[in-house]
Every structure is written in structure tokens, then in C-alpha cells.
UniProtKB/TrEMBL annotation:
Stated name of the protein: DUF1232 domain-containing protein
Organism expressing this protein natively: Candidatus Limisoma faecipullorum
Subcellular localization, as worded in the UniProt entry: Endomembrane system
Residue intervals of the DUF1232 domain: 17-51
Signal peptide: none
InterPro entries for the chain: DUF1232
UniProt topology in membrane: Multi-pass membrane protein
Keywords: Membrane, Transmembrane, Transmembrane helix
Family matches, as Pfam families: DUF1232
Length: 102
């Protein structure tokens, strides 16, 4: 049973590294949820990369620092929820501005 837990832990660590790499690629790619404009357009990049970093921190600190792992888990989901709220709000504001100007 313990061997299976170690195998799952290794899979989680590899998956978290893959997620971080994909998040960094998303951060530098020109395709975004919110078009890249100073400050406003960087919000989606920030939240996606922050989520990926916290995810990697959670799974890489499981064995050595369980308290840090728990903190990273909670922080990861708070960043995700806050990020979704900010992105939706920015999209709604953008839609309202476009409607007002057209």
C-alpha cells in the first residue's frame, strides 16, 4: 500500500511540473482569455501562473513539510476562485465598455 502512495506522489509531482510548464507557455503566448493590455490583460496570466506555482509547491512539499503543503493547497484554491472572479469581472466591464461605445 505504501508503494502505491509513493507512486501516486511521484505522478502528482510530475503532473504539477507539466502544469507549471503549460502555465508558463500560456503566460508568454499571444493567445489569452483577456487580450494583453498593460495591467488588465496580465491578470489572467498572473492567476494561472500563481495557481500552477502553488500546485507545484503543494505536491513537492508533501513529504518534507506537510504544513506548507496544506497551506499551498488552500492558497491555490483561493487564488483560483479569486482569479475566476477577477477575470469574469474584467470581461463584464469590457463588454459594458464596448456596448457603451457602439
Amino acid at each position: 500500500m505504501e508503494e502505491k502512495a509513493k507512486k501516486n506522489g511521484k505522478k502528482n509531482k510530475i503532473l504539477s511540473i507539466v502544469i507549471l510548464i503549460l502555465a508558463l507557455v500560456y503566460g508568454v503566448s499571444p493567445v489569452d482569455i483577456i487580450p494583453d493590455m498593460p495591467v488588465v490583460g496580465w491578470a489572467d496570466d498572473f492567476f494561472i501562473i500563481a495557481f500552477a506555482v502553488l500546485n507545484m509547491l503543494q505536491f513537492s512539499s508533501d513529504d518534507n513539510h506537510p504544513g506548507l503543503s496544506r497551506f499551498a493547497k488552500w492558497a491555490k484554491w483561493l487564488v483560483a476562485l479569486f482569479g475566476i472572479a477577477v477575470i469574469v469581472l474584467l470581461l463584464l466591464i469590457g463588454t459594458a465598455v464596448v456596448k457603451l461605445l457602439s
